[in-house]
Amino acid sequence: MDGRAGKETCQSFDKWRPRAHIQPLDTAITAAHAAAPGGPVSSSKIDRLLAERERLYKGGGDERVAKHHAQGKHTARERLSMLLDPDTFQETHLFMKHRCTNFGLQDKEFPGEGVVTGSGLLQGRPVYVASQDFTVAGGAVGEATARKIQSVMDDALKTGDPFIFINDSGGARIQEGVDSLAGYGGIFYRNVLLSGVVPQISIISGPCAGGAAYSPALTDFIIQVRREGQMFITGPQVIKQVTGEEVSAEDLGGVYSHTHYSGVVHLEASSGAEAAEITRRLLSFLPSNNTDEAPVYPDLHEDVVGPVPALNDVVPEDPRQPYDMHTVLRLVLDGADFMEIQEHWAP
Predict the structure, then answer these.
(1) Which residue, 283, 311, 334, sits at the end of a domain?
(2) pLDDT per residue over 140-164, tens digit each?
(3) How far is the C-alpha of 30 from the C-alpha of 47, rounded, in Å?
(4) For residue range 52-70, what is the model confidence (pLDDT) as tens digits?
(5) Are residues 186 and 321 in the same domain?
(6) Could you tell me if 96 and 231 lie in one domain?
C-alpha cells in the first residue's frame, strides 16, 4: 500500500463543506425505507431503531455517566462536541457488537463497544476521530472496539485527512484474550502506516494503561489533560503487587512525569475544553497530509519583512553570554505567533 493521499483529494476544503449538511439519520432512515424494494418498512421498526440509537448514545447508562461527570470529566461524545465544528460529526459503526462468548460475555453488552468513531470538520477541515468511552467497561478495547478504530484510521489514510484519537481506556478487554491483543496490533500497524502521511494527534483524557499508552506514543503529538489523564505501561496496583512499591497514578503517569521526565507528552491542558482548543490551534499549523500545502493565512498581507532593531538589545555581544530565545522568536515570527512543543522537556 502506497498510503500517500492524492493532492487532488485534499487541495480544497470548500468541497467538503456539504458534509456538514447531510440529512439527519432519522430522516435518512425514513426516506430509505419508504423507497425499499419490498415496500415501506413499518414505522414501528424505524421507531425501534431510533430508540436503540438513543440508548446507545448514553454509553454505559445514566448512572455511570453521572459518576463520570461527578469526577469532573466529560463523556466521549461531549469531548467530540467540544473538538469538532458544530453539527458536522458523522458517526460510524454505532451498532457494532462483539462476538466473544468467553467468560460469559455472550450475555454482556458493551454499548458502542466503548468507543465513538466517525468523521467531522475541524475549522472547516475534514478529520477522522475516535473517542473512547470510559463509562463502557472502562473503555477497554475488544476486537470490535479495535475494528471501529481501525476503520476510521483506514479512512484517514485513504482520504488524506488528519486522525485525532481521544484516549480514555484501561487497556485490553482481557476476556477476549488474543483477539483483543490482535486488535491493538492492528491499531499500532495503522499508526505506523499513517506516520508521515497524515497528522496523528492523541489526547490523553483518562487513565490509559498498556495498549492505551502504546498507540499514543506512536502518534505525532500527545496532549495530556492535567489531573484527568495518566499514561503508563502498568498501573499502580500492578506495581504494588509486583514490587511492593506504592505510587499514585499521577506520580506514575501524570502530566508532570511525561512533560518533564519521559518527554512523551508534547502539550498539556488544564481541562478537556482546553485540550480541544490546543488541538485546533496545533492543527492550524499543519497540512492535512504529506502532499498538501500548509495552511495559508491571507489576512497576514502586510509586509512584515524588515529590520528588527530590538534584536540588538536581546543578543549580547559576548558569545558566552546566554539570552532568552523566546524573545527572539517573538520578534521575528509573524504576529509573534508561536506554539511551543515540549516546553519542559530538555529546556
Answers:
(1) 283
(2) 999 999 999 999 999 999 999 999 9
(3) 10
(4) 888 888 888 899 999 999 9
(5) no
(6) yes
Amino acid at 68: H
Q: Has residue 294 been placed in a domain?
A: no
Which three cell numbers, joined as nine digits, stand for 322?
546566554
Q: Which three cell numbers stand for residue 156?
A: 484517514
Three cell numbers, residue 146: 479495535
Same domain, 194 and 321: no
Grid cell listed for 37: 424494494
SS3 203: strand
Residues 93 and 216 in one domain: yes
Task: Note the pTM of the prediction, 2 decimals.
Answer: 0.84
pLDDT < 50 stretches in the chain: 1-21
Distance CA 324, CA 330 (A): 11
Q: What are phi and psi of 323, to 5 degrees?
A: -150, 165
Domain that holds residue 339: 300-347
Q: What gap in Å lies between CA 220 and CA 196, rounded to an integer?
A: 9
Residue 249 burial (CB < 10 Å; 0-12/13-18/19+)? middle
In what side-by-side order are the strands of the sheet with 90-92?
A: 90-92, 115-122, 125-132, 163-167, 200-204, 221-225, 267-269
